[in-house]
Specification:
Distance between the termini: 68 Å
Strand content: 15-25%
Shape: rod-shaped
Number of helices: 14
Structural class: alpha+beta
Radius of gyration: 66 Å
Length: 592
């Protein structure tokens, strides 16, 4: 058996996954509901069909009992008539006189004929041991001498019954008589246990069939009326069983059981049947109902077929609705996917997608913001790239200019030495050192020792300019000389201390102290001067890029940004100042 590839299903679009989910959510409950309904309806239909069949059988039994009572009353009236009892036991010698025979025959005919009003009875006959029939028989009275050798008569005598029901065909040579015969013993007027004759009533089959037809619970129901000997008296028009088949069914149902039974689990010829048997009181008759189980299930099967047909009609509608709903639910996701593909291919010039207040709306809103941010960042990156290119060009030019200046200063220094002007040579030498340290072979960081030499060179040049008005003191441990610091970190601070601090004092002289120490893994470099100090308002904004270049704030802001860019926002400059006393600047960078 081929295994299901769940990975393939996982790769389906969300629309088809939702479509499959909707089908499962809708169809599975429908299937379960259909199965449950079929199960319950089948059981309920079976119960209802069994109940109806049982009630119909009981009604048929009651109807047959009523008709049998009516026939029995007729036969009892005849059998207990004094005239009949006397005439069936009369001495045959009395009828040597023909007139007497005719007189008695008329009397007997009148008694028998008075019951012709009963529509259930076709004819009434009297069988007698002596009397009229021993001399001459007629259609109304017959001799019993011809019956004594018949099997049915011997069985009747052996049963000691006073009333019995038989098929008329067993009493006559003509087998085409399908009527039902009811026999009643005519007792002797002097001894009730002695039988002087039999009164026979014949019931038409049409009457019995009409009664049995009322018990037709289903179109294929078979109903039969039979006596204690198992002889079938009458059947419904749909009765399909032979006498042998009927006897076999009865033998299966009656094994060790009473006559009044209701069996719904019998099998005959491979088919399940429902069998009901009822005794008809005060008679030796039984009525049987045989219902094929296929008829009982036919109603439930028809209901099942209708439900399945409706279910099959619903499924296509469910498929269409599920697909439409799944498509509608994923419409915005598909639009978002198309926009993502465009963004992936570099197309950011799209109109924002409409936003709803749900989860997908939130996703689309965030996507719109992201596209806007990415578009803005791309523009900024493009602009920044142009600026970087310009700055790289300017940096190249800046490198060319100091190199040219440095070489020119070397030439001037050589000319000053050759002319014997030591002062000019000294200034030029200091200036050349200053620019050589500034270049530092293009590196962004230098050692603290190199930075301090750069500061010394700068102060030396300024002292030549201002008549040694600045005293520079460096208090740095040799252990820290090799620490790495940003290039030109101290020079702008020293320049501010000279131009905006010391030279603005009344004496235009002052001291600058440069010190360094380590603390918690950081390198702290301090620049202290005894100049005029900084106003509090200026001090608050000195690290802001908006400060004018005239106050020296731009160079300070540049140092601050370089440090934060290279080392992080926790590093940078810290200013302390007091008017009239001086300024202190602390540089904090990681120790490397």
């Amino acid at each position: 058996m081929k295994r299901i590839n769940w990975r393939t299903f996982a790769d389906f679009s969300i629309r088809y996954k939702l479509f499959a989910s909707y089908l499962m959510v809708i169809i599975l409950p429908l299937i379960l509901l259909l199965l449950l309904h079929l199960y319950l309806s089948t059981n309920e239909t079976e119960k209802q069909a069994k109940y109806s069949a049982q009630k119909m059988l009981e009604e048929t039994k009651s109807h047959l009992q009523y008709r049998a009572e009516m026939v029995k009353e007729v036969l009892n009236s005849i059998a207990f008539s004094d005239t009949v009892q006397n005439l069936v036991s009369e001495d045959p010698k009395r009828y040597e006189d023909v007139n007497l025979w005719g007189l008695d025959a008329n009397r007997l005919s009148r008694i028998v004929g008075q019951f012709s009003y009963n529509s259930d009875i076709e004819s009434v006959q009297v069988y007698m041991e002596q009397g009229l029939a021993s001399v001459t028989e007629s259609t109304d009275f017959l001799s019993m001498k011809n019956l004594k050798h018949s099997l049915w008569f011997r069985n009747f005598l052996d049963s000691h019954s006073v009333l019995t029901w038989l098929p008329s065909s067993v009493m006559e040579e003509k087998k085409d008589n399908n009527a039902i015969s009811v026999l009643r013993v005519i007792p002797s007027p002097h001894n009730i246990t002695k039988m002087d004759g039999i009164v026979r009533a014949q019931i038409s089959q049409s009457t019995m069939i009409a009664i049995l037809e009322h018990a037709m619970a289903t179109p294929s129901t078979s109903v039969a009326l039979f006596n204690e000997q198992g002889e079938i008296l009458s059947t419904s028009k749909t009765f399909e069983y032979t006498n042998t088949d009927f006897e076999e069914i009865l033998s299966k149902a009656l094994t060790g059981r009473r006559m009044n039974i209701w069996e719904d689990n019998l099998e005959f010829n491979g088919q399940r049947i429902l069998l009901g048997l009822q005794e008809i009181p005060q008679t030796d008759m039984r009525v049987a109902m045989i219902v094929p189980y296929t008829d009982i299930l036919k109603t439930s099967n028809a209901m099942r077929d209708r439900l399945i047909f409706i279910f099959l009609l619903i499924i296509p509608l469910t498929l269409v609705l599920s697909f439409v709903v799944a498509g509608s639910a994923t419409k915005r996701l598909r639009k978002l996917t198309r926009h993502v593909r465009k963004v992936k291919n570099g197309d950011f010039g799209m109109n924002p997608l409409p936003v709803n207040q749900d989860e997908i709306g939130e996703l689309i809103s965030n996507f719109n913001v992201m596209v806007d941010n990415v578009s803005r960042l791309l523009e900024e990156t493009y602009t920044l790239g142009r600026e970087v290119k310009n700055k790289e060009l300017k940096a190249l030019q800046a490198q060319i200019n100091p190199h040219f200046l440095y070489n020119t200063l070397e030439l001037i220094n050589a000319m000053a030495i050759s002319s014997g002007n030591e002062e000019i040579s000294k200034v030029v030498d200091r200036l050349a050192l200053f620019y050589r340290l500034s270049l530092s072979n293009g590196r962004e960081s230098v050692t603290l020792e190199s930075e301090l030499k750069h500061v010394e060179s700068y102060v030396s040049i300024q002292n030549m300019r201002f008549n040694n008005a600045i005293t520079l003191t460096i208090n740095v441990s040799p252990e820290l000389s090799h620490c790495e610091v940003p290039k030109i970190m101290l020079q702008p601070l020293i320049e501010n201390a000279i131009l905006h601090g010391i030279l603005e004092t009344d004496s235009e002289k002052g001291e600058i102290l440069v010190s360094a120490r380590t603390e918690e893994g950081n390198l702290l470099v301090e620049v202290n001067d005894n100049g005029v100090g900084i106003d509090e308002e200026v001090l608050e904004n000195i690290l802001n890029s908006s400060v004018s270049k005239g106050t020296g704030g731009f160079g300070i802001w540049n140092i601050q940004e370089r440090i934060k860019l290279n080392y992080g926002s926790q590093y940078g400059l810290l200013y302390k100042s007091q008017l009239g006393e001086g300024t202190s600047v602390q540089i904090c960078i990681p120790k490397k």
